[in-house]
Amino acid sequence: MAVSGNPFLNGEFAKFDFASLMDPSKLAEQWEKIDFTAVPEQFKVPGVDAQALVQAQKRNIEAVASANKVALEGAQAVVRRQAEILRQSIEEASKAFSELNAAGTPQDKLAKQAELMKQAYEASLANLRELTEMATKSNGEAAELLTSRVSESFGEFTSEVKKTAKKK
Fold first, then answer.
1. DSSP strand E in 33-135: where?
2. Which of 28, 39, 129, 166 has the fewest CB atoms within 10 Å, counting from its CB?
3. Comparing 42-46, 75-79, 85-89, 160-164, which segment has the lowest mean pLDDT?
């Protein structure tokens, strides 16, 4: 039974869980539930190819899902690298304390402490740069997927408008 005259509130689209776009496995489940052959019947507008619109939207959603997957994989890689950095930092701190305790005079300990702090600071900066580059790269790849799809979508829209204009 129709909820309203709005096709987005009726039929298959009303059943789609858009929150699933953030989880690739849930998105795949959602795709399997939708009967895309029945969707165009909900959009009978004179001069508009509803099937083409549905297919374009399907490609849009697939692009969003792909971009989310790339971004998620990038975030997971950053988290893994952060864990590696933490492990290395703990090992290096333990080694540094041993070296600091082994230093002789108070002046030697102070000089060693300054050297170790400089090394730790430089390592922290290098790690920060690496993590930033990793995140930037994966987010850039995700953005490129979406940018490419938006460009294709505008091309498809223009093509459909031209087809409709020729029919008149």
1. none
2. 166
3. 42-46
> Using CB atoms within 10 A of its CB, is residue 67 exposed (0-12), middle (13-18) or buried (19+)?
buried
Answer yes or no: are the C-beta atoms of 28 and 69 closer than 8 Å: no
Q: How far apart (Å, rounded) are the C-alpha atoms in residues 151 and 163?
A: 19
Rounded to 5°, the CA angle 144-145-151 comes to 85
| CA separation, residue 8 to residues 42, 45, 143 (Å) | 9, 14, 27
* Cα–chain center distance at 45: 35
- For 109-156, write each residue's pLDDT tens digit: 888 889 989 999 999 999 999 999 999 999 999 999 999 999 999 898
Per DSSP, 103 falls in state -
- Does pLDDT of 166 surpass 50? yes
CB 71 within 8 A of CB 138: yes
Q: What type of residue sits at position 90?
A: I
Sign of CA dihedral 161, 164, 166, 168: negative
pLDDT at 2: 46
Cα→Cα distances 156→13, 49, 60, 100, Å? 21, 12, 11, 67
Q: Which tokens sit at 68?
A: 């989310």
